[in-house]
Amino acid sequence: MSETEAPPSRTPGGAVTIRPALPRDARAIRDLVIPYAQARILLAKEMIGYYEAIQEFVVAEVDDGAGGRRVVGCGALHVMWSDLGEVRTLAVDGGFRSRGIGHLLLMELLARARALGLSRVFCLTFEVEFFTRHGFEAIEGAPVEPEVFAELVRSHDDGVAEFLDLAHVKQNTLGNTRMLLTLA
User: Fold this and answer.
1) According to the lineage, what is the superkingdom (predicted)?
2) What is the pLDDT of residue 169?
3) Which of 43, 102, 140, 166 could bridge across to 161 with cysteines, CB 3.0–4.6 Å?
4) Domain residue spans of the chain
5) What's the topology of domain 16-182?
6) β 177-182/14-20 pair status
7) From CA 55, how far away is CA 164, in angstroms rounded?
8) Given this model, what pLDDT does residue 165 score?
9) What three-state secondary structure class fits 164?
């Protein structure tokens, strides 16, 4: 186990390992996102987008029953500003939901945020209860200073635009809740 790999955790159904994603995981991440995108819970990306952001991702894997490992969950931490990050693309295979895997992934992403010196983490979600249990609170408006807002508005990233609640992405908004966690 590497220094950046979380120790295996037991969940109902077996051991789960959370580790940094590797380029070979991009297709598995995309496959995890597809059902959520079809249900309009997550936004689908082009395959190139997963490869370009692979270093932001962690994955959850379990024994595949044939001596190998299978990716059953993923999540990403995107740095938005010096003190601010966003949890993105948190997804768990439907057959592995309600086993604590989402919790393990989120804990790893929050640990990454702390290691990077971030003090706040944003998310855009339909899973309000899940994130509330982890200390996130629903927000209105952009909780940044005007000069930071002016810099962030220059980003071409749709996630940053969603954070800022910019009108040009309103047509793409899925109707989810904007939430923020202040890290202790």
Assistant:
1) Bacteria
2) 43
3) 166
4) 16-182
5) Aminopeptidase (3.40.630)
6) unpaired
7) 24
8) 58
9) helix
